[in-house]
Each structure stands twice: as structure tokens, then as C-alpha cells.
Design brief:
Helix content is 27%, strand content 29%. It is an alpha+beta fold and 144 residues long. Strands 5-4-1-2-3-6 form a 6-stranded antiparallel sheet.
């Protein structure tokens, strides 16, 4: 069936990746809506170096500077990585995931980059983090 993989990154002012993390979505938005599924996503402590390579490439191609961004990929059952979306902003709710998974305050990385011109952030993916959402069907109300 394949997987939706979300890759979050932080770039410095020279379009270099100084921090990254990765999450997996349970079914994707379309399947969740169409099949009336509950959804969840979880962080990865280990990930394919191919995601990192592609993420670093996009940072350079789009010349992202001094910002958070995230990429959304589809990982096919055969292992092919298909880019679905490039967002030049942090994943909604994803920063909290990264805070907990890496046990660090991400805006400190940004502050160190600006104030101290730091271009690398030591980090370890210490924990798994999971979020679950439940879809609720509400009756359609007719207005007269």
C-alpha cells in the first residue's frame, strides 16, 4: 500500500541542513477521509539516508535560508520515494513532535544560528512520539 513520510528540517543562512527529523503517517488524508479511518503518525528514530539526501537537495534547490520546512513523500511498496509536497514552513504540530522526540528546544537551534552563527545542531532521536486523531462524523444540519 505504501506510506506517507514527513521529513522536517531546519536550514541555516547558507541553505545547509542543521537539523532534521522524520515522521510516518498512518494512512494519509485521502484514505482517512474516504475510508472513515482514525489517523495517527509517529516519529522515526532511524531513517533512510535517502530521505536525508533528498531533503538536503531540496534545501539547496529552493535556496531555503534560516527557516524550518518540511517535505512530504510517498514511499511505494517497492521502495521508490515520490515527493508529494515541499512546504517552506514547519509542519503544523510537528515542532512539538520534534521537541519530544529529540528532547530539545528547536527554537534554541534557531537562536544559536542567528546569534552565534552556529551551523550544526547536535541532536539524537531519543524517543518515539505518537499522535492519534479520531474522525468524527457530525450530522449535516439543514438551515431554513
Amino acid at each position: 500500500m505504501g506510506q506517507i513520510v514527513i521529513f522536517d528540517e531546519k536550514a541555516d543562512d547558507y541553505s545547509n541542513v542543521i537539523f532534521f527529523g522524520c515522521h510516518v503517517d498512518s494512512d494519509g488524508l485521502i484514505n482517512t477521509v474516504n475510508d472513515n479511518l482514525a489517523s495517527y503518525f509517529h516519529s522515526l528514530r532511524e531513517m533512510s539516508t535517502e530521505f536525508e539526501r533528498i531533503g538536503r537537495m531540496y534545501i539547496k534547490v529552493f535556496e531555503v535560508k534560516c527557516g524550518f520546512f518540511h517535505l512530504i513523500f510517498f514511499l511505494t511498496p517497492s521502495g521508490e520515494i515520490v515527493t508529494l509536497k515541499v512546504n517552506i514552513h514547519p509542519l503544523n504540530g510537528g515542532l512539538e513532535f520534534l521537541y519530544y522526540a529529540h528532547d530539545m528546544y528547536l527554537f534554541q537551534i534557531w537562536a544559536n544560528m542567528i546569534v552565534n552563527e552556529a551551523h550544526h545542531a547536535e541532536h539524537e532521536r531519543k524517543y518515539y512520539v505518537v499522535a492519534r486523531g479520531k474522525k468524527m462524523l457530525l450530522p449535516l444540519q439543514k438551515h431554513s
